[in-house]
Design a protein that fits this description.
The structure holds 2 protein chains of 2 kinds. By secondary structure, chain A is an alpha+beta fold. Helices cover 49% and strands 22% of the residues of chain A. In chain A, α1 packs antiparallel against α2, α8 runs antiparallel to α10 and α20 packs across α22. By secondary structure, chain B is mainly β. Chain B has a single domain, classed as CheA-289, Domain 4 (OB fold (Dihydrolipoamide Acetyltransferase, E2P), Beta Barrel), CATH 2.40.50. Chain B contains 3 helices and 11 strands; from the N terminus they run αβββββαββββββα. The N terminus of chain B is likely disordered. Chains A and B meet through β21 and β22 of A and β4, β5 and β7 of B.
Chain lengths: 697, 153
């Protein structure tokens, strides 16, 4: 038996409680009177304390205990929630988080006592309630409980039914001259991991001697098949007081009782018990007394269970992401094999059985598509897990920068592939910091511009076709393109003449260059110039891109576009001359037949005018380095692709139809040219390239 | 006994002898994953000129390099004897190179190999030794040089 098996549960649940606390404290700050929130916080803090105690993380327990005290006062109305208190509470959360990090890394909470924070908590408590820190009162209270309780704890080891072998063990220990103690340990009723407690007790006492008998059996204790107490017989040289003392050092132990026993006593006791049982004398009243002192606590326990018991463990399974990847690969293989069958069925359509053959192929196609979808869904997680730490971050930034701001988030339930979600946190965090630091103006500037004093930062996530869009926008200053231009000239990136000719987009692109920072003073929030370029490369590594829209004086919007899936997509297969290319269906808007006569020229570039839009034409044969075709056709097949609000028309020779394709990397050897985002294997074994419509624009 | 074998392996290496143009080249067999017949190679636009394209190797996409173009020789002429040798390199994955013909597998000891130190022309950049096998001379490819020199040409 080992505590480490509980470690994972502990880490998960602590994370959950921390997030919960953070959310609640945030909302408490806005609505300090809300009793529901306060109760929720109290429960979460209490659970945290209990769990930390269970796992033997004393420092963490101490800290959460003090937090709980504060909430106790808040709950009973003796204390008001102030901004200062919220600050300290957040510090507590950070400290707990730090403990948790230590636990994750080394299974130990570390040695930081965080006395400063605890001191602050107690100071607030003292100042607000006008009483001495409750800390002192608490142990006293507990002590009061104890003597009363003592009577309720019976020496249950006397009830242990000893086998002959166990009796022999006790007898031989006695003969060796060692002391044998019978010990019964009572665990607090609200203890979550009783088996872990028991284990810690055993571990502690085994430093002093050997445990001869477990009651209930060690297996039952390990499986938590016992009520709130367990007993054991210990052979040791140490005095009884010492043993009881070390047992009590384990947290969440209510009481330890024991005495020296001898073999003869045991035999006598066993006999007496038999008669006692018949008469039903001693144990009965004692047992009645036992629950009484703990009743108050028992009330708290069910409330906590509703809260802590929420993650229904038996309905979910943890799976290593690598196993999912393997599954995904196999599904990919299956789809390739299916595509091969599809292409055979469409070429050999003359035989008699072809009808049924065709039906079966279609059936197979449906199955593989559904299978793929299911596997994809398993890998999808809501971005919530990443973005829910942002409100807190913005609050901290608001304090640090001395700017009033608010984060409005929508679409936290938007789902993305697990691998994408894991890596999107840092770039988003950076964009938010950027908005808070560079985007939003100071209060007086905002007042002059007639904007509300409180700046707003929005984080919007939503799905668009095969992409997920995450927008980070602020109502701040916007990007001053003139200043960026000046900076670019100053840095020698362009000549002043060149700078004049740059479009707004080209100027904004400078911001994404490595070590190009606009702030005059470097803060620890942003402005070191390692920022937007990293954001861009991180997002591009995920197959996404970043776009910026900015109006000077009104605000900036960063639009992050990410692929929904990484491995299998629906694509339109097209032919350009004799080469086949795939275009992701998600980026295709429409397909048009355009008579050559309708092509117009704007700035010597071919465009078409369709339903009120002027769309530039892209001749794929040119972009793909092919010989121009000799005969000019009367009409062109144009695939209209869309990226954000921009359109482009790709001229292709032939449409081959829609197909589910498996994206394969073309490897690292071939210089990454952006217009090809990968390759796929067609049904006939041929390799076709996937055109990245975004990069073509 | 085991150490004897190790010494033996250190001293004597097996090479696949291939023909490119009129010359014979040796490829260290430990790098060779597979030899496949010529098949349809999908051209990749905007790639380096010495990459002929990509092929489907049992469901995996593998880039194929024209070693002739890389060494500055005249372009490949595909015949029935043409083969693609798939090299397996730990970090960067598989890579195919096109050769005119596969001849045989030879075992060369260190005494049969002359080291080539200085690079005189473009071609010898990719050669790290000359092996002597009977009357024949075999230029031994430096696989890492073939793979690494992405920026060249």
């Amino acid at each position: 038996m080992d505590v480490s098996q509980y470690l994972e549960i502990f880490i998960d649940e602590t994370n959950e409680h921390l997030q919960n606390l953070s959310d609640c404290i945030m909302s408490l700050e806005k609505d300090p009177e809300n009793m529901d929130t306060i109760n929720e916080i109290f429960r979460a803090a209490h659970s945290l304390k209990g769990m930390a105690g269970t796992m033997g993380f004393k420092r963490m327990q101490h800290l959460t205990h003090d937090m709980e005290n504060v909430f106790q006062e808040v709950r009973s109305g003796n204390m008001k929630v102030t901004s200062g208190l919220v600050d300290v509470l957040f510090q507590c959360l950070d400290a707990i988080d730090a403990y948790l990090e230590n636990v994750k890394e080394s299974s130990d909470e570390g040695t930081e006592d965080n006395e400063a924070i605890i001191q602050e908590l107690n100071d607030i408590l003292a100042a607000e309630t006008g009483s001495a820190p409750e800390e002192k009162a608490a142990p006293a209270e507990e002590k009061k409980e104890e003597p009363a309780a003592q009577n309720g704890y019976e020496k249950k080891y006397q009830n242990a039914e000893l086998s002959e072998k166990e009796k022999d063990a006790i007898k031989s220990a006695e003969e060796r001259g060692a002391n044998v103690y019978g010990i019964t340990v009572y665990i607090q009723e609200e203890c979550l991991l009783k088996a872990a407690r028991a284990f810690l007790v055993f571990k502690a006492v085994e430093d002093y001697g050997d445990i001869l008998v477990y009651y209930p059996s060690s297996q039952d204790i390990e499986d938590e098949k016992f009520e709130n107490d367990f007993s054991f017989f210990l052979e040791t040289e140490a005095p009884l007081e010492k043993i009881i003392e070390v047992s009590k050092t384990v947290s969440e132990i209510a009481e330890v009782v024991g005495e020296k026993v001898t073999y003869n006593d045991l035999i006598a006791a066993a006999e007496k018990k038999e008669t006692a049982e018949a008469a039903q004398t001693t144990p009965a009243p004692a047992e009645k007394a036992a629950p009484a002192p703990t009743q108050q606590k028992a009330k708290a326990a069910p409330a906590k269970k509703q809260n802590g018991g929420k993650p229904v463990t038996n309905r979910t399974v943890r799976v290593d992401i690598e196993k999912l990847d393997a599954l995904m690969n196999q599904v990919s293989e299956l789809i390739i094999a299916k595509n091969a069958l599809v292409s055979i069925s469409s070429t050999e359509g003359s035989s008699l059985q072809s009808q049924t053959f065709h039906e079966q192929i279609e059936y197979l196609e449906r199955i593989t598509t559904n299978l793929h979808e299911s596997v994809m869904k398993v890998r999808m997680v809501p971005i919530e897990s990443v973005v829910n730490k942002f409100p807190r971050m913005i609050r901290d930034l608001s304090k640090k920068l001395n700017k009033e701001m608010e984060l409005v988030m929508t679409g936290e339930d938007t789902e993305l592939d697990r691998t994408v979600v894991d890596q999107i946190g840092d770039p988003l965090q950076h964009l938010l910091r950027n908005s808070a630091d560079h985007g939003l103006e100071n209060a007086d500037v905002r007042a002059k511009r007639g904007k509300p004093e409180k700046g707003t930062i929005c984080l919007n996530a939503f799905q668009e076709g095969n992409n997920v869009i995450i927008e980070v926008s602020d109502d701040g200053n916007g990007i001053d393109t003139e200043r960026v231009k000046a900076k670019a000239v100053e840095r020698g990136l362009v000549t002043p003449e060149q700078a004049e000719a740059l479009s707004q987009k080209e100027i904004i692109d400078f911001l994404f260059m490595p070590s190009f920072s606009m702030t005059k003073q470097i803060t620890d929030i942003s402005g070191r110039g390692v920022g937007l370029d990293v954001v861009k490369s991180n997002i591009e590594a995920l197959g996404g891109d970043v776009e910026v829209k900015s109006v000077l004086g009104e605000g900036t919007k960063f639009i992050v576009r990410l692929p929904l899936t990484l491995a299998i997509i629906q694509a339109l297969m097209v032919e350009v001359h004799d080469e086949k290319y795939a275009i992701a269906l998600g980026s295709i808007q429409t397909i048009e037949d355009i008579p050559v006569g309708e092509i117009k020229y704007v700035q010597a570039k071919e465009v078409i005018h369709i339903r009120g839009f002027v769309i530039p034409l892209i001749r794929l044969e040119k972009i793909l380095d092919m010989e121009p075709s000799e005969e000019e056709k009367e009409s062109l097949t144009v695939v209209i692709v869309k990226k954000g609000e921009k359109f482009a028309g790709l001229v292709v020779d032939n449409l081959m139809g829609q197909q589910e394709i498996v994206i394969k990397s073309i490897g690292k050897y071939i210089n990454n040219n952006k217009i090809i985002s990968g390759a796929t294997i067609l049904g006939d074994g041929e390799v076709a390239l996937i055109l990245d419509a975004n990069a073509l624009m | 006994m085991a150490s004897n074998v190790a010494v033996l392996e250190n001293d004597r290496k097996q090479y696949i002898v291939v023909k490119i143009g009129s010359e014979q080249y040796g490829i260290d067999i430990s790098y060779v994953d597979n030899i496949v017949r010529m098949q349809k190679i999908t051209r990749v636009p905007k790639a380096q000129n010495y990459f002929t394209g990509i092929i489907n190797l049992r469901g995996e996409v593998v880039p194929v390099m024209s070693i002739r173009t890389k060494m500055g020789l005249e372009p490949d002429q595909f015949t029935d004897a043409s083969r693609i040798i798939i090299l397996k390199v730990e970090q960067q994955g598989s890579l195919g190179i096109i050769i005119d013909e596969v001849k045989e597998v030879v075992t060369l000891g260190e005494d049969e190999i002359d080291k080539v130190a200085s690079a005189k022309d473009e071609k010898s950049n990719f050669i790290n030794g000359i092996g002597k096998h009977g009357e024949e001379l075999i230029s031994l490819f430096d696989i890492n040089a073939i793979i690494d020199e992405k920026e060249n040409s």
